[in-house]
Specification:
With 793 residues, the chain is of the alpha+beta class. 26% of the residues lie in helices and 26% in strands.
Length: 793
C-alpha cells in the first residue's frame, strides 16, 4: 500500500486527505472544530487585530502534514492580491512582512501529491495604527547577537552601563546581593535526587526536592550576577563550583526532564545565565562537560514541546516555561551549536503565536495572580534577553502589553490576598518587581506606580537590572477607568478609587471558560470584596502542594469560595468544559454591571446559574442569583471571611468586619433561609502550608427542595464606625421584576431591579418601568434623576 495519498473526499468545506497508512485510519481533516485543549483559529472571523501581520493559528491535521497558508486582500484569493506561504511544517505561522490596513482574508490548506487543497475562508481587519509585528529574519537577527559574552541580558555596551549603576544609583541593592551571596560560599550542596516515588508519597517528596534544590541554584545565579557586576572573584568561583556540581548530575537520570521536570527546568533557568556570566572562569575541558549536559537538557525541552505540540495544545502548565528556557539556551549558544538556531526560531514562534495558554489578547490569566506573577517572571526573562541580544521586541504582542493591567486591577498591591488560583492566600505586593519590569518595557507610568506602592527592590536581579530606567516617573492609576474586564478568562474588576488604599473598594468577579483546570479553581460565578486594603468576602484555603488532600478537597473546591452549592455539591473540578462565561460587563455614570453564567460547571446539577451584580458607586453591590435545577434540590449560598461573621437574630443580615473595613450583607431573598457558620477546614491544611490560620465560612441554605431558587442580596461596604451613613435597604416586589430600594440619609435613593419574567413585555419595580433585563435609577433628594442604567442581552 502506498504511503502517499490513500484517499481524498471533498464535501463542502470538509476535506479529508490521508498521507500514510496510519493516517488512513484517522485521516487529516481541514477546519475541524478545536478540541477543548487546542488553540482556536486565529485570527477569528471578523477579528480586528492589534498587530500586523497577525499570527495565524489553525487546528493541526495528522503528524507530518505539510501545510500552505494564503493571505489575501481579495475574498476570491486572486493571484495578484494573494500571498502564499508553502511547505509549512507547523500549524502556526507569522509572515515576515506587515499587512497594510484593510480587510483581509485567510485560509490554510494541506499539500499533497503536488497540489494543495484549501479549507474555508476567514476574514480579519487590520486597522489604521496596528503595530508592526513581523516575524524576525534570522539571518539578520543572528548576525546582531554578539559572539563575545555575556550574551544574556547584558551584551555589549549594556554591561558597562549596568556596572556604572552598580557603582552608583544601584550600589546598595547590588552590595546587599553580594553580601547575601558571600554568606553561602562553600556551603554543602544538595545531592542529586533519586527517582520519584509512586502514589501519595509523590507530593511531599516533590515539595522536599523543590525546597532543597531551588535555593542553592538561585544562589548560583546570584553569585554569577554579582561576579559579572562587581568582579568579585570569590563569588565567581562559588558560581563555578555550583555549576560544576549541578551539571554533573546525569541528564538522562533522575533529573531528566522526563523523570521529574522541576529540577532540570530550574537548573537550566539558573545555570544557563550563570554559565554565560562566568564563562571566562572555566577551562576548555570544564566547558565541554557543562555544555554537553546543557545540550542534552535543552534538547529534552524541545522534545517535550514538540510532543504536545505546544503550538496547538499548550495547556500543560509546566510546559509553559519551556519556550523561554529553550530560547535563552539558544541565545547563549547560538554561535556554538548548529541546532540553537532552530531552537531560537521555534521558541520565538511560540511566543508570537500560541503563548500563553492561560490568557488572551486582553491580558487576563486563568491561574490567578500568584501563578501569573511566577509565569510572567519566566516569560519576561526571554522577552528581555531577546530584546537586548537581538533587538526583537516581543512586547508588541497584545497579551504582553495588556497583561500588566491584570496585575493592577486584580492584584492591587494593597490587597490582602490573590484570589482565583493556587497560592491565593499570598499578598500581591511581591509582584512589585515584576511590575517594575513591565513599566519599563511598556513605558507605562501606572505600572511604575504599582512597583513603588509595593516597595519593590530594584537592582538585585537580572530582570530589574536589564530594565532599569530611572527616567520613567509614576502616575496614580486614579486617572484610569475604575472598572476593567478580561473576557478571555471570564474576569471583571470594579474599583471605587483604584490606587488610593484609604478609599478604594474593589469587587472581583470570575466566571472562567477554562473552569477549574490546572492551577485554577472550581470558582465560577464567585466574587471577592476588599476595602481599604482588607479582605471582606474572600477566597479561602491553602496550597501545601498540588493535589494535597486540603488543596484538592477544599482550596480548589466550590465550598471554599463565594459561590453556590447544589445539595451540598459544588462545581466539577479539573474537567474541560466545566466552566463559566462572562456574559456582560458594562460601566456607566454611577453604576457598574457584571453578569456571569455558570450552570455548565455543575455537571448536570443545574440548568441555569445566572449571577448578576450591579455596583451602585461607591461600594454598594446588589446581587441577583437565578438558579434552575433539572430536579428539586436545596441550594447553599456561601460567604467567606477572615473573621467571625455577625449574624443578626431574626434578620437576614450578616456583619463582616476586618478593621478598618466593614460590610453589612442583607440577604433579602429567599425569605426563609437556614444560616450556619464554621471556622473549620475540611480537611485541614497539611503542615507544609506553613503557619496557616482559620477563616470563617457562612452557609445560607434554602429550607426545602425546589427546582428553582432566587437569591437577592445587598452588600454595603463601609469603614468601621460609619454605620450611620449607610442607606436604608428595602425589598421591592414589582411587576415581573424584583429589586431593592436604597434610601440615603439625605433623602436620595436608588432602585436596582431584576426581571423575573423574561417573557413579559415590560417590567416595573418601585415606580420604575423598563423593558430591560436589569435596570437601575438614582434620584437626588429633590427627586431629580441623576443616573440610570439598563441592560438586556
Amino acid at each position: 500500500m502506498s504511503a502517499r495519498v490513500l484517499a481524498a473526499v471533498v464535501l463542502g468545506f470538509w476535506i479529508v486527505v490521508a498521507t500514510s497508512p496510519l493516517a488512513a485510519e484517522r485521516p487529516p481533516v481541514l477546519d475541524p472544530a478545536p478540541g477543548p485543549t487546542q488553540k482556536p483559529y486565529s485570527p477569528a472571523d471578523d477579528q480586528v487585530v492589534e498587530v500586523t501581520p497577525p499570527p495565524f493559528i489553525w487546528v493541526p491535521a495528522a503528524k507530518g502534514t505539510v501545510y500552505a497558508l494564503q493571505v489575501s486582500s481579495s475574498s476570491d484569493f486572486s493571484a495578484e492580491k494573494t500571498r502564499t506561504f508553502s511547505q509549512l511544517r507547523r500549524s502556526v505561522f507569522v509572515p515576515r512582512e506587515t499587512l497594510p490596513p484593510g480587510r483581509w482574508f485567510w485560509r490554510y490548506g494541506i499539500e499533497t501529491s503536488g497540489k494543495t487543497v484549501f479549507g474555508r475562508t476567514r476574514s480579519f481587519v487590520v486597522p489604521d495604527g496596528a503595530r508592526p509585528f513581523p516575524f524576525p529574519d534570522w539571518d539578520q537577527v543572528v548576525s546582531r547577537i554578539p559572539r563575545s559574552r555575556p550574551r544574556l541580558f547584558f551584551p555589549g555596551q549594556r554591561l558597562e552601563q549596568v556596572r556604572q549603576w552598580a557603582r552608583g544609583a544601584l550600589k546598595s541593592a547590588v552590595d546587599a546581593m553580594a553580601a547575601s551571596c558571600a554568606r553561602h560560599v562553600g556551603e554543602e550542596l544538595v545531592a542529586e535526587p533519586g527517582y520519584q516515588p509512586k502514589g501519595p508519597e509523590f507530593g511531599p517528596w516533590a515539595v522536599r526536592v523543590m525546597r532543597t534544590t531551588r535555593p542553592p541554584m538561585d544562589i548560583m545565579e546570584q553569585c554569577a550576577l554579582a561576579y559579572l557586576l562587581t568582579g568579585n572573584a570569590r563569588l565567581g568561583q562559588e558560581a563555578k563550583r555550583r555549576l560544576l556540581h549541578f551539571f554533573s548530575w546525569d541528564p538522562e537520570g533522575p533529573t531528566s526532564f522526563f523523570a521529574y521536570d522541576e529540577p532540570p527546568m530550574w537548573m537550566m533557568m539558573r545555570g544557563t545565565r550563570a554559565y554565560d556570566w562566568t564563562f571566562d572562569l572555566f577551562t576548555a575541558n570544564e566547558r565541554a562537560k557543562i555544555e554537553a549536559n546543557m545540550r542534552v537538557r535543552a534538547a529534552q525541552f524541545l522534545k517535550r514541546l514538540e510532543q504536545l505540540p505546544f503550538e496547538s495544545s499548550p495547556y500543560d502548565s509546566h510546559a509553559g516555561r519551556l519556550p523561554g528556557f529553550l530560547g535563552e539556551s539558544a541565545l547563549a549558544f547560538i554561535h556554538e551549536w548548529p541546532e540553537a538556531r532552530q531552537w531560537l526560531d521555534y521558541a520565538t514562534l511560540l511566543y508570537f503565536t500560541s503563548y500563553p495558554a492561560w490568557g488572551g489578547d486582553d491580558g487576563g490569566w486563568q491561574e490567578g495572580p500568584s501563578y501569573w506573577g511566577a509565569y510572567m517572571q519566566f516569560a519576561l526573562h526571554y522577552v528581555v534577553a531577546l530584546r537586548e541580544a537581538a533587538g526583537v521586541d516581543l512586547m508588541q504582542k497584545p497579551f504582553f502589553r495588556n497583561t500588566p493591567y491584570y496585575g493592577l486591577y486584580t492584584a492591587t498591591p494593597y490587597h490582602q490576598h490573590s484570589p482565583f488560583g493556587d497560592n491565593q492566600a499570598s499578598e500581591p505586593r511581591g509582584l512589585g518587581r515584576l511590575m517594575y519590569v513591565f513599566s519599563t518595557l511598556t513605558q507605562n507610568p501606572y505600572f511604575r506606580w504599582y512597583a513603588e506602592e509595593a516597595k519593590a527592590t530594584v537592582g538585585a536581579d537580572a530582570l530589574s537590572l536589564a530594565t532599569y530606567d530611572p527616567k520613567l516617573k509614576s502616575r496614580s492609576p486614579r486617572e484610569l477607568p475604575p472598572a476593567r474586564a478580561f473576557p478571555s478568562v471570564g474576569l471583571a474588576s470594579f474599583h471605587t478609587a483604584l490606587g488610593d488604599r484609604q478609599k478604594d473598594v474593589s469587587f472581583l468577579f470570575r466566571s472562567s471558560p477554562y473552569g477549574g483546570v490546572s492551577h485554577g479553581h472550581a470558582d465560577q460565578n464567585a466574587y471577592v470584596i476588599e476595602a481599604f486594603g482588607r479582605g471582606l468576602a474572600i477566597a479561602t484555603g491553602y496550597y501545601p502542594w498540588y493535589g494535597s488532600p486540603h488543596h484538592d478537597q477544599w482550596t480548589r473546591a466550590t465550598k471554599a469560595v463565594n459561590s453556590v452549592l447544589v445539595d451540598g455539591q459544588g462545581q466539577v473540578q479539573r474537567r474541560w468544559g466545566a466552566g463559566g462565561r462572562l456574559v456582560a460587563m458594562e460601566s456607566v455614570d454611577g453604576y457598574d454591571y457584571v453578569e456571569g453564567e455558570a450552570a455548565s460547571a455543575y455537571a448536570g446539577r443545574l440548568d441555569r446559574f445566572r449571577r448578576r451584580v450591579v455596583h451602585v458607586r461607591p461600594g454598594i453591590f446588589v446581587m441577583w442569583d437565578d438558579l434552575q435545577a433539572p430536579r428539586p434540590a436545596q441550594f447553599q449560598w456561601l460567604l467567606h471571611a477572615y473573621h467571625r461573621v455577625g449574624i443578626e437574630e431574626g434578620k437576614p443580615i450578616l456583619r463582616v468586619r476586618n478593621s478598618p473595613a466593614a460590610m453589612d450583607v442583607h440577604v433579602l431573598l429567599p425569605e426563609s433561609l437556614r444560616i450556619a457558620q464554621t471556622d473549620r477546614y475540611e480537611p485541614e491544611p497539611e503542615a507544609t502550608a506553613g503557619n496557616w490560620t482559620n477563616t470563617w465560612h457562612v452557609t445560607a441554605s434554602t429550607a426545602a427542595p425546589a427546582s428553582r431558587a432566587q437569591f437577592l442580596s445587598v452588600f454595603l461596604v463601609h469603614r468601621e464606625g460609619e454605620d450611620e451613613r449607610l442607606p436604608g435597604v428595602k425589598l421591592e416586589r414589582g411587576t415581573s421584576a424584583v429589586g431593592v430600594k436604597l434610601v440615603g440619609r439625605d433623602g436620595s435613593w436608588d432602585v436596582v431591579a431584576f426581571r423575573t419574567d423574561r417573557d413579559a413585555a415590560k417590567a416595573a419595580c418601585a415606580g420604575i418601568q423598563s423593558d430591560a433585563e436589569v435596570f437601575a435609577e438614582g434620584k437626588d433628594h429633590d427627586g431629580r434623576t441623576i443616573r440610570r442604567f439598563e441592560f438586556s442581552p
